Amino acid sequence: MAAPTRLLEWLFALYFLSHIPITLMIDLQPLLPAAGLYPESVKLLQWYAVTFRDPMMMQPPEWFKSFIFCEAFLQLPFFPVAAYAFLKGWYKSGRATCHRQHFCRTFAFCIAIKVYPAI
């Protein structure tokens, strides 16, 4: 039983580690001034928005920017901590309550916008 649990912990660590560059290169772009971005970064965001049909990332409404700020200041610092905790086997589910709440709230709003686009 310990081997499958340990494998799952490594997979979660990989998940959190992979979200660090994704957050830095794609998710935080709408908060940064366009003049300070590399052209490759802008192309990456455009590719992402077209490929995954995510127009809110190209011109996010103000309410969506508040979620991006939360991602920058709550989730991004949490990613390396969570990855390290999973790798060391220290992770306890109760310690990630803030991350889970923010994720669920963001997910619920995004689904609501897809289901009810007139909102």
UniProtKB/TrEMBL annotation:
Keywords of this entry: Membrane, Transmembrane, Transmembrane helix
Claim: Plastid is one of the keywords in the record: no
Membrane topology of this protein: Multi-pass membrane protein
Major localisation: membrane
Location relative to the cell: Membrane
Keyword Transmembrane helix recorded: yes
Domain EXPERA: 8-119
Cited Pfam families: EBP
An annotated GO cellular component: endoplasmic reticulum
Transmembrane parts of this sequence: 7-26, 63-87
Official protein name in the record: Transmembrane protein 97
Species for this entry: Nothoprocta perdicaria
